[in-house]
Design a protein that fits this description.
The chain is α/β, with parallel strands linked by helices and about 290 residues long. Helix content is about 25%, strand content about 25%. Helix 1 runs parallel beside helix 2.
């Protein structure tokens, strides 16, 4: 098929951070199952959720409490539950969750589930921030929670499109975005959790640039609201789909939970790549210093 319907789900976390991990997960999973079913009813074929969708952005603090949110992938209960949902709805799901490997090794990961419910694979976030936000002690304290990804930049051949994933802070690094293009991505999903005052001025610059430079679609997903008790800033939503010409073709509001619907047009990818031959004209033999420490 030439055209594929894309749904991006941006949502707020409604529970106080002092609530239990179990309470957060239960409430968020229930909400997102409802929203995914609504997206499927609107014709969505690929649905992506936001970064660590099943709770608050807990990296605003450094507490071992949140390690309990991590699960194995694909053998954890959340992945299995959403495999059943994907099969029921006939959709591909990009499922960003907190991954535990072995006894206590943790990653910021997204599982990719095909339209028949099959687990296709996972991407682990490569670039891990550790950055203060505001003056209240909050921040993106991710090195406390995640090891850097070690699975490369895979592209998953799903029922509807060749899908890549690049998570939140990754988007500031063009090298991985290019690797995903070289690996055949038609669309790259960037599930995020990012706040005003820190990254908003970059939100609509970097990812359209990746789309143009690599001749693919980018889907950027951000949560909404202010999360207590950290108050590290407003998650400013504005989830969007951008095409290979750099045009934003669908975008969500700044402050409302919603399903952002857009269309991926594979013929446009071909058209753009035939005009702009960036892959033909690249000079990898001259880039050695880019991979030198």
């Amino acid at each position: 098929m030439s055209k594929v319907s894309i749904a991006l789900i941006q949502a707020a976390n409604e529970l106080h951070g002092g609530e239990s991990v179990e309470a957060h997960k239960a409430a968020a999973i229930e909400k997102h199952i409802r929203m995914i079913r609504e997206a499927a009813a609107q014709g969505a074929q690929i649905v992506s959720l936001q970064e660590i969708f099943y709770g608050p952005y807990f990296c605003a603090e450094q507490q071992t409490k949140w390690y309990a949110a991590a699960e194995e992938i694909p053998n954890g209960p959340t992945t299995r539950l959403f495999q059943e949902l994907a099969k029921e709805c006939g959709i591909v799901i990009i499922l960003p969750i907190y991954e535990r490997e072995g006894i206590a090794t943790y990653y910021n990961t997204a599982a990719v589930i095909d339209a028949d419910g099959a687990y296709v694979g996972k991407y682990r976030k490569h670039h891990i921030p550790h950055v203060a936000v505001g003056g209240g002690g909050g921040g993106f304290w991710e090195k406390f929670y995640f090891k850097p990804g070690n699975l490369g930049y895979p592209v998953f051949d799903t029922a509807y499109a060749k899908v890549g994933v690049y998570i939140c802070y990754d988007r500031h690094f063009p090298e991985g975005a290019r690797a995903l293009g070289l690996n055949g991505a038609e669309i790259v999903f960037n599930p995020s959790a990012t706040v005003a005052g820190t990254s908003e001025y970059l939100w609509k610059l970097e990812q359209p640039a990746h789309a143009v430079a690599n001749g693919y679609y980018v889907a950027a997903i951000n949560r909404v609201g202010v999360e207590e008790p950290w108050n590290m800033g407003e998650f400013y939503g504005q989830s969007y789909l951008v095409n290979p010409r750099g045009a934003i073709t669908a975008i969500g509001s700044r402050d409302k939970e919603e399903i952002v619907m857009g269309v991926l047009d594979k013929e446009l990818i071909r058209e753009v790549r035939e005009v702009w031959q960036f892959y033909r004209d690249r000079r990898p033999e001259t880039y050695d210093n880019l991979v030198s420490l």
